[in-house]
Amino acid sequence: MSKKVLIPIAPGSEEMEAVTIIDMMVRAGYQVVVASADFDGELTMKASRGVTLTADCKLVDVADDEFDAVILPGGVQGAETFRDSTVLVEIVRQQMYEGKLVAAICAAPALVLLHHNLYPQALMTCHPSFQDRIGEKYRRVKRVTYDINHNLLTSQGPGTALEFAMEIIINLSGKAHAWTVAEPMVTIPTLQYHKLGDA
């Protein structure tokens, strides 16, 4: 059964993160919904470095849908829009209550999850610029951090986006499926989603 994932975007979202995540979820064979969190309802927007991104729909149009994962790209301006979107915060909160995967990268863990006191006792990481906002007990400096008890996956920035996306695939579909995605991409051979263990 195919997985369904939600990837919101907003003006100022980090394009390397957004595009990498979207692309990898498509490669994994998932149903990918890219939804605009823009307050004006625009589907086409400029990302943090000026690249144009286009959403499939408005976030409000899929607010009642069920997703196997909700994945938040970073970028400060984009994450601030996510933070201020009551629709998106409620989607994340519902996902959390149902024990389904939430994944956030770069500024999003700090500006969205921590700001709204979501996952207050979860292990997490984020962009180094925001790591001091995570309580020392819960802060991790790994490039990708997964808290199995909270089903929360976080990561640090554009340079970790590929690893982050692969970990999402591992979480949703296992290492064997992740390997079928990684192998034709000629990814770094030392990364853990390569043919190891049950892969």
UniProtKB/TrEMBL annotation:
Stretch forming the signal peptide: none
Keyword vocabulary terms for this entry: Repeat
Top-level lineage group: Bacteria
CDD domains, sorted: GATase1_DJ-1
PANTHER family in UniProt: PARKINSON DISEASE PROTEIN 7 HOMOLOG, PROTEIN/NUCLEIC ACID DEGLYCASE DJ-1-RELATED
Pfam family, one: DJ-1_PfpI
Name of the protein: DJ-1/PfpI domain-containing protein
Gene3D superfamilies: 3.40.50.880
GO CC annotations on file: cytoplasm
Domain DJ-1/PfpI: 3-169
